[in-house]
Amino acid sequence: MGANLCLALAGSGARVQAFGRSRIISAVCNNVTWMNGLSDDPSAVVRAIEGNNIVFHLIGASTPASSNKDPIADLNACVINTLKMLDICRESGVRRVIFASSGGTIYGVPQSVPIREDHPTEPISAYGVSRLAIEKYLSLYKYLHNLDYIILRIANSYGRYQVPTKKQGVIAAMMINVLNGVPLEFWGTGAAVRDFIHIDDVVEAMIASIFYEGPIRVFNVGSGIGRSINQVATDIERMFPNTIAHRVYREARPGDVPTNVLDIGLIKQEMNWSPEVAWQAGLKDTADWLRDFLEAGGPAH
Question: In this structure, is residue 234 part of a structural domain?
């Protein structure tokens, strides 16, 4: 997400400064000032934030499944470090923080589908709880310190620069497995339904958030279309017609919700944003990038 965002911002002529521990941004973004560091290092965060008008907060230290194994670690890595970052933002004169929250986990088991922003938030993973806590602290800092913010509850994003080594991204993981003749692994029956959105559409929503001047602060960002994991696997297999992918089904994980499809009517209305990348085109774009990535010596697993 960060690499694609930086490329788009720099391509539009913005002065972009990126901070984190992943080297991929510095490798692909020539017009971006890259600062390597960790979010628990206050001095490094100060250097990264000072002089910037907009801060995109894309923190992600865990996954929904792993977070339930150690909720305290997730709290420290995400919530505590975010609070320190927000203090630095207000002291540095940042105008707005744009937070990439989780439309896939923050609502929990849905009472109705598609899920609107005013749906109850009852996450069933520590990952979702951490994102919800960060949302509440953003609201608090707006009230106490007038630090403006936009929250984007993003569905399952996929596309370029997403590699399975980070244990996220079911589409990238499946494609890598198909390319390498490794069985596709499913948690549960594969009937779980998810909302998938291409990274180009996510980036467009992020950039639109810079300029939004309306009263709403929380938006869903998704395709508004639900697809079962089994159907996603079938569509991916069709991208590689000369391969045969075996499927392995394992016991469902307790932190996974059965259905998640986002209602995106609000962001369409307020920001005039709509997803533009068609499903098959997005899969092809992702598959082409992954082939090039592997041929260039990228990790296969």
Answer: no
**Would 53 be classed as within a structural domain?**
yes
CA 128, CA 284: separation in Å to the nearest integer?
30
Note whether residue 180 is domain-resident.
no
Confidence at residue 265, expressed as pLDDT on a 0 to 100 scale: 98
Domain span at 124? 2-165+195-225+260-277
Q: Work out the percent of the chain whose per-residue pLDDT is above 90.
A: 73
| Residue at 291 is within a domain | no
* Total-model pTM: 0.94
Q: For residues 3 and 161, is the Cβ–Cβ distance under 8 A?
A: yes
* 166: pLDDT strictly greater than 80: no
- CATH number for 272: 3.40.50.720
